[in-house]
Fold these 4 entries.
Entry 1:
Amino acid sequence: MLAGRHPVTDAPIIESANRTIPAFDLTFRAPKSVSLAFALGSPEMTAEITAAHDAAVDAALGYLERNADVARRGHNGTEQVSADGFIAAAFRHRTRRAADPHLHTHALVPNMVRSTDDGRWRTLDARHLYAHLLTAGYVYESHLLDELTRRLGIADIGKHFPRIWNEIGL
């Protein structure tokens, strides 16, 4: 997909070979308090935090699909057409490079979408993506908070560290 080829048949799926950006890395990061609870919590707590994080990532990507899924076509890509969804590969990480706890997911979105009007693969109009990234981050954060509250009864995980420390035996 990153090379503009069909993942099964290897046939070219996009006409323009002039795409300078093959994909976008959308990163969704849990707050440090959530990352610490994820790293140090019981297996049950870690599983619930993982599920909450994954649901929040899905909500943020869904928001972007509904609001920023626009293809470019025509001379210099000046014409905008609607598309039928992103393709994304999500990679969840437990730590950052320094090896400290940092729950986050990279969602790699190829710079191509299929237009709804003719079904052809076209370059993603990144202007819409960039315009909605900040809001998608807020969607992720609010959904994560809601999921943690429903799953663990924790509205602000940072305020509940004594309870968490007791639960994990520290």
Note: Residues 126-152 form the longest helix (27 residues).
Entry 2:
Amino acid sequence: MSQLGQAEARVLPMRAVATAQTPMPPLIGNSSSIKAAIALCDSVAQSDCTVVLTGETGTGKEVLAKYIHARSRRRTGAYVGLNCAAIPETLLESELFGHVKGAFTGSTDRPGIVSEANGGTLMLDEVGEMPTCMQVKLLRLLQERKFRRLGSNHELTADIRVIAATNRDLDAQVKEGTFRQDLYYRLNVINIALAPLRERRDDIPELANYFLGEFAQMHHSVASRFSDDVMSKLRIHSWPGNVRELRNVVERAVVMSTGVEITNVDLDAKRPIGLCGRYVNFPPNGVRVDEVEQDLIKLTLEYTGGNKTKAAAMLGISLKTLHNKLGRMGYKKSKESLGIPA
């Protein structure tokens, strides 16, 4: 298989395809900025004009793109998304436009995402990362709605609506010469900016509660509310990862919770690591390697009922090494139980 063929096999998961009748994604928040963004989405949804969604990573640009598609006359068509930053430059043309048999070693006929999005919406995420050589071909697609598959001279027509998203300043990239000015003007018909979460803190409680309900159901948790202290922490955090970070924090807290209320203990608990059926919760400031080793030794000995020979075998170390480690931990060699320190 050629290098291009191998790269193609690796990149397939980078494509996101939603089939006909894409469900309407929930748009959560009552801040003036999110309301303005939603209103603009509603205004442009029925047209086929190109839209650029701008904002920091994790602000919800893909959610807005799916919302526009679901509100459009193309909602019965496919919504196809591609992360331009995740595709190797050598493969991007093939991924977008497809290729014909013989285009490269081992290739067979394969349509690209432009063909898959025909009659629907093509969403190009991180469009600011697109190589200059591909920007020319994207410009032609936008202007003429025509393209050619790699290795073919046959011209095809695309009936698509294009939505682009970026966390970069495209205007600055144009001035730097890394993004074509003509493509910028062709893409930037409608610009919808999403404010970072730190600038719309009033949306945090509603978002957090929505994620709480979602993950409580997903993980079969009884958690149904946040303590006042936890909600205060959520509201004042700077959220550099924006809504995506908030979503991850809430999911982790739900997984770690044992009661109806999410507490500071649940919020501060870090990613669980299973050890002999138990969990070690990493504190916010991290943990030393020797502390993890000590916990592992204790749990293993508990699991073996204090049998050090079995514990050493499970840990993959000699009995002598285990005794030495126990000595450094402060336990007498003569004691089989770890409950009696030296």
Note: The longest strand covers residues 161-166.
Entry 3:
Amino acid sequence: YISSPVVVNLSDLLAPIWTQGLTNTASGNTGAGTPNVYRWNTETSGIDRGSWEEVTDLDFTISAGDGFLVYVYAADFGETNTGDNLMLEVYGQEFGSFTVNTNENDGSDGWTLLGNPYPTSISFEELRASGIEDAVYVWAPNDATGDGGDDTLNPSGSWLAWSSDGSAGLGDLTDGLIAPFQAFFVENADGQSNLELNFNDAIKTSNFPEFLFKQAPRNVIRMELAGQGMRNSAWFSFSENGSIKQRVSGDAWQLEPMSSDYALLATKKQGVGLMDIAHFPASGDLEIPLITEVTRAGTYHLTVTDFEAHGKDLYLVDLETGESVAITENMRYEFSINEAAKAPTDPFALLSDDPRKTSVDSHRFVISSKQQNQVEPVDMPEEITLRQNYPNPFNPATVISYDLPEQSHVTLQVYDIMGRYITTLVNDQVPGGQHQVTFDAADLSSGTYIYRLQAGNVVLTRSLTLIK
């Protein structure tokens, strides 16, 4: 993901690397084949693959704030591939002050790919305008963050996110700084579109004093998955504004990896999706699904690299082995993955239908506020059962209970009496046993609704009544 700090023709900038499927390519390249240079369309509604526009003509002048996705082929580095870098060079006067408008579409349909237009780093905290979600995303092909162990270099690449809920920032994109030549994604907040972002000297980090304030105590944990030469991390924070089933200020999505080989670590919020950075409640019992997905089978370890959790006992529970490990600043848990995720063979298929990671159906780990051996044993149910919600009638919330004789993929959804979809309460791999989920209908009108449970091939339905 690249940009330019000066006015330059795209064909000149990319002259040192192979380009194809385009007109006006550098000498010796070809106009045949699949294009390997793309832009993000900020006018197309939605976040599907159609938002990626092929740049079919390299005779194109890069404007201030433009961001591009460019695939670079291994053959560019020669047959020996010694690891030497290829240099993309530009010369000229850096851009001055200017304004860029974000996507014309509202909320999560409104993603914008921008680029740092200066030869110095810029601060997302200073750039971010009201109406932009407080998260920024940068793809790092050779992410070198981590715990300094045997996986310091991460050639599979990682998304580096940064978010701030108005207090201390979180994420692997250090201090939310965006490097020169770096392109990055931002997202419109719900109800917002076509927002103005102001690029000027004030957002350049070279003008900032260094750390003239004390950082407030944080209640955060950073966990890292590493092994087989790959690595990825997830951040989670605990606060009164946190939620297990809603996206809140400071949350950042887990985006789809852009490499055919990858390791992925993320938390999951009920009915929301996978999070790279997530804020959960500071009080009450917690059971947070922790997603691990890798494309290379073998031995991996989970470690805690940042630990500032105050007064909260948490445990990493392995649902496959039944082991429970206290999450502390020295935690290290080693395990094996025998069945790896299928790596895509077509690199251009990585321009997925949604930049957010959505294709994980199960999880092996949970982060729990209860140690595994502290949970009272119960008799395993003999059959799949969907129980009547309680209370019923209700206002505004009710509890739905169901039983599973064994681990199954469970979908629990709510519909109105006409069969129109309302919401999904569960869509995950769930271990055998007795389970409960709360349905909050505060935003719905009085009436009768249907809740439908699918576990494996079994489908069960019941009705509930909301009275306000």
Note: The radius of gyration is 24 Å.
Entry 4:
Amino acid sequence: MRGLITRSIAVAALAAGAAWAQPVAITTTSPLPPATIGATYSQTFGASGGSGSYTWSASGQPGWLSMTAAGVLGGLPPSTAIDSTFTVTVTDANDSTNFASGQFTLPLALAIATPSPLPPGTVGVNYSQPLTAIGGSGTYTWVVSVGSLPGGLSLNPATGLISGQPTTAIAAASFTIQATDTNLATGSKQFALTINPAIVVTTNSPLPQGTVGVNYSQGLTASGGSGTYTWAVSVGSLPGGLSLNPATGLISGQPTTAAAAASFTIQATDTNLATGSKQFALTINPAIVITTSSPLPAGTVGVNYSQSVTASGGSGTYTWAVSVGSLPGGLSLNPATGLIGGQPT
């Protein structure tokens, strides 16, 4: 009889143990697979134990991450993302007190954050562009892993600085930069970089001559560089009465003083602050003065008349004309020589 009772108790204990579920446990481990800037992140969590289905939640995670009730953690990391640590909790279906929580770290994969294309450079002008990376750990080492930088430029392996003086114009150089962290994790990115031709002020020197008191207008032109040009007198000064339009490169005004050969340097600066300059010479002639005295020698009706008119100042040859009034009948003015001649009538 005693043996029978003992056997019954043992069987009852076995049945009760079979109905008792194991505690819930999160089977996903930390750290999680790293997230990559610019790529949607998704990680499904797993659990064991408990009974029925699981309900998941997360707390303390960055704003770009969210957890679904089904246990999928996901989101799109922004360019400012950093390594994150947060809490994940799972609860079983039949007993709200049967749950498990864990601390999880989501590292950020090493990625180069500098955008492409890089700012353009100009032949013969110093270029300096730092590269930046995010994620990984420790310090970065930089290298050109595919292709090569434009001629004259180099990459500092310790700082990620691209610098130098480009030697050759190129429409769009293409190369890949790789960053390696202290743990030898790597991230790479393809870049495009345009090298513009050197800025050259193409207007010839000396400039066309001007004359005191006469409106002067001369446009300057340039080639190379990129964007629009800004103009300035970088050495010396323009002759008195003249000015340079910084937006259009037009030299204009009324010269006030004669100058045999004024000398000055004009600089053109493009949108990227690359510059090109050229020295110019500009002669400002004295004002034109008719030197023949008035009144002119008298003439007689029917008798040939000949009187030359002379002038000084200005430049080149003169062209003559009666600008106000008229000559006496029978007389005319030679426009090429300034000779008044004919028979007065």
Note: The first strand starts at residue 25 and ends at 26.
